[in-house]
Write a structure and sequence with these properties.
Blueprint lengths: L11 E6 L1 H13 L4 E6 L4 H7 L3 E3 L4 H5 L3 E5 L3 H13 L3 E4 L12 E5 L2 E5 L6 H14 L3 H18 L6 H11 L12 E5 L5 H17 L23 E7 L2 E10 L4 E9 L8 H15 L4 E6 L4 H8 L4 E3 L10 E6 L1
Parallel strand pairs: 1-2, 1-4, 2-3, 4-5, 11-12
Antiparallel strand pairs: 6-7, 8-9, 9-10, 10-11, 12-14, 13-14
Helix pairs in contact: 1-2
């Protein structure tokens, strides 16, 4: 078998069939961007007629139809109709695929997963379509919708480097980006997660804060400006005053929280963030527990924090995790709810 990817967008393509098998093949052609598809099927096949719209023709393709095509797909046909379509396609050297009929296939259709321009396929050479579908589902768990945006970023990076004559940097730059953001790390729910104290100026800490600020920019009415917020100084985020805690799944930072202290008995919790891909796994609770543990080690007696009404999940979390709502204790313009917890 020769693995190839064909650009069939402008090809004249025929689909002959009926039932769900034909509807599924039409959906595949549409998803692939094929613009010149003619669909043949029984007049009584309402789902196929509806899916095809103006492209629908009653009956089977004529020899003239087949001769003018470059690709013929058949699905859901009887054995006699399959043989007839195969004979016409072979006579006119038209590429042919007949679902579940290997002797009449010029090629196999792999199980395909699309994420934007990213195309991942699994093929068993026709031996087991069910297994190919299972592999596609397995790939889908590891290559989520975020890969569409990742590929767009890679394309922009490639264009930028090529335009400046830096072709030799293409491969290393893409690999560095993927490694830095942990694109190929195990999913957070499957990888062991560890929480470590980090340098506030480290790459992992800066990454977490950048993601946190970007989310607030989207969710806060009027956006978010770091300069207007009460951003803690680095000295207040390291022992013996505080700590910057980062959660890692393998090498990828997936969450953070800051214990901001001044050396006294009162400290603040700041910048609690969990990556969208790691939410629902109890990581926020683990980060807060780790921050409270460090606070006790530093002889902190009272923890305080503030949050915004645009983060209802945070409000719910604090209210159910032993925090008490109190009066305003700072002048942060983005804060409108304030909490305290005695250790």
């Amino acid at each position: 078998m020769l693995p190839v990817v064909l650009d069939c967008a402008l090809w004249p393509i025929l689909l002959a069939g009926k039932g769900t098998a034909a509807v599924r093949r039409l959906a595949m052609l549409d998803e692939a961007g094929c613009r010149h598809v003619t669909v043949f099927g029984p007049e009584t096949d309402a789902p196929l007629r509806e899916a095809a719209g103006t492209r629908f023709r009653a009956g089977l393709p004529s020899e003239e139809d087949v001769a003018a095509a470059r690709l013929l797909l058949a699905a859901g046909l009887s054995a006699a109709d399959r043989a007839a379509m195969a004979g016409l396609a072979r006579r006119h050297r038209v590429l042919l695929h007949v679902e579940d009929d290997l002797p009449h296939c010029d090629f196999h259709m792999p199980a395909a997963l699309r994420r934007g321009s990213l195309l991942l396929t699994a093929s068993t050479g026709g031996a087991s379509p069910a297994l190919a579908s299972r592999i596609r589902a397995w790939l889908g768990e590891r290559f989520g919708p975020e890969w569409s945006e990742r590929l767009e970023r890679v394309a922009r990076l490639r264009a930028e480097l090529k335009s400046s004559g830096r072709n030799a940097e293409l491969g290393p730059a893409v690999n560095a980006l993927a490694d830095r953001e942990g694109w190929f790390d195990p999913p957070p729910g499957r990888a062991p997660v560890r929480i470590e104290e980090a340098d506030p100026e480290s790459e992992a800490a800066r990454y977490c804060l950048a993601e946190y600020y970007a989310e607030l920019e989207k969710r806060f009415e009027g956006g978010f400006e770091v300069g207007r917020s009460r951003a803690p100084q680095s000295a207040h985020m390291v022992r013996p005053r505080g700590a910057f805690l980062v959660a890692f799944a393998e090498s990828r930072p997936i969450g953070c929280v800051i214990l901001k202290g001044t050396g006294g008995e009162v400290a603040e919790i700041k910048r609690l963030w969990v990556a969208p891909s790691a939410r629902g796994l109890g990581l926020a609770k683990r980060l807060m527990t780790a921050a409270e543990t460090v606070a006790r080690e530093l002889a902190v007696k009272v923890l305080r924090l503030d949050t915004n009404r645009a983060l209802p999940e945070a409000l719910h979390f604090y209210r159910t995790a032993g925090w008490t709502e109190i009066a305003r204790f700072n002048d942060d313009p983005y804060a409108d709810h304030f909490f305290e917890k005695r250790l």
